[in-house]
Specification:
The protein contains 12 helices and 13 strands. With 330 residues, it is α/β, with parallel strands linked by helices. The mean pLDDT is 95. The structure holds nicotinamide-adenine-dinucleotide. The site of nicotinamide-adenine-dinucleotide has 26 residues, from helix 1 and strand 5.
Length: 330
């Protein structure tokens, strides 16, 4: 059972990793936090954790990171929102080195439980062509035709976890995260995802008094968005469960990008003129999480409303934009 012995969080300087380290420390667990970035670029640094800078694409670094740990959470990946993954397919696929070497270290060094963060990008395009997506079921991942680059790496790594479990007896757990958002994540620079990007653009419009917002696509593409607290709670529940097959971890509150903008405008107390950029990357047309299996297997599913999560996220993004205002807005 997780809870005894040290826990490794790989990708701890990132968005979800930083929140997970915080949660594990609150539980009284002993945490080793590892990321490739210099520490001043980590979203959160927890002094109570053992913080290491390592490039986990290398086998030696993975041995160093995994040595002495009972549980491993692999949240390390070279990734970002649609703007990043559509134009960096090879870089996304190279994250396969991280999962491969971490799994080998986990097997060789006697790790008890291994968690892998997969993605809704494993689902085939042919099931995501309509905006009123009824929800992707776990079985929909096959026949496979995932997002090129990033999605193929995730699907391959999922299967690698499965075969390490079946052939080598390593206990593995896999979640397919659907669009996670919240504070202390990427909000600018090209890797940010839709909720952070929309919060940033609204905050920029408010601070710069421009009255306008630019939206990628026609605004009618649909998604569901999961607040970070639900993501961390679900990840902990799955790790301690006996569920071996990949499960969705996502919200099933489906909205269009236009609706997302309207919610953020409401939080900010503004109404903006919308410019639609039809040449920008948009990803699939409609994506939603089907939560029947997670509810059945874990007796739990994400429940924090988009409005509540965005309230907290917008406040945090606004502070970042305001702090950078002289160079960012005019
Ligand atoms: P993030 O980019 O904020 O964090 C990933 C971290 O991994 C970064 O800090 C990065 O520096 C680190 N990393 C990259 N290469 C590394 C290497 N070679 N060695 C060590 N660390 C390395 O991303 P996130 O949003 O926190 O996502 C965490 C995981 O969840 C990723 O595997 C991602 O693919 C998956 N996921 C996230 C979402 C989402 O909406 N955020 C959705 C689906 C899946």
């Amino acid at each position: 059972m997780s809870g005894d012995g040290q826990v490794l969080v790989a990708g701890a300087g990132g968005f979800i990793g930083g929140h997970l380290v915080s949660r594990l420390l609150t539980e009284g667990q002993v945490v080793r936090a590892v990321d490739v970035k210099p520490q001043d670029e980590w979203f959160q640094v927890h002094d109570e954790a053992e913080n290491l800078i390592l490039d986990l694409r290398s086998a030696d670094a993975c041995d160093r990171a995994v040595a002495g740990t009972a549980d491993v959470y692999n949240l390390a990946a070279d990734m970002g929102g649609m703007g990043f993954i559509e134009s960096n397919k090879a870089l996304c696929m190279l994250s396969v080195l991280i999962n491969t070497h971490l799994l080998m270290s986990a097997r060789n060094l006697g790790v008890e439980r291994y968690f892998y963060a997969s993605s809704a990008c494993v689902y085939p395009d042919y099931r995501q062509r309509e905006t009123d997506n009824p929800g992707l079921k776990e079985g929909d991942a096959y026949p496979a035709m995932p997002e090129d680059g990033y999605g193929w790496e995730k699907l391959f790594s999922e299967r690698l976890c499965r075969h390490f479990r079946e052939d080598f007896g390593l206990t593995t757990r896999v979640f397919r995260y659907h669009n996670v958002y919240g504070e202390n994540g990427t909000w600018t620079g090209g890797r940010e995802k839709a909720p952070a990007a929309i919060c940033r653009k609204v905050a920029e419009a408010v601070i710069g008094e421009t009255g306008r917002i630019s939206i990628w696509g026609d605004g009618r593409q649909s998604r569901s968005f999961m607040y970070i607290d639900d993501c961390v709670e679900g990840t902990r529940r799955l790790m301690d469960s006996d569920v071996a097959e990949p499960l969705n971890l996502g919200s099933d509150e489906l909205v269009t990008i236009d609706e997302l903008v309207t919610i953020v405008e409401g939080i900010a107390g503004v109404k903006l003129d919308r410019d639609y950029d039809l040449s920008a990357p948009q990803g699939v047309r409609g994506r939603n999480s089907d939560n029947e299996l997670i509810t059945e297997r874990l007796g739990w599913a994400p429940a924090i409303s988009l409005r509540d999560g965005l309230e907290r996220t917008y406040r945090w993004v606004y502070e970042q934009v305001a702090a950078n205002a002289p160079s960012r807005v005019g």
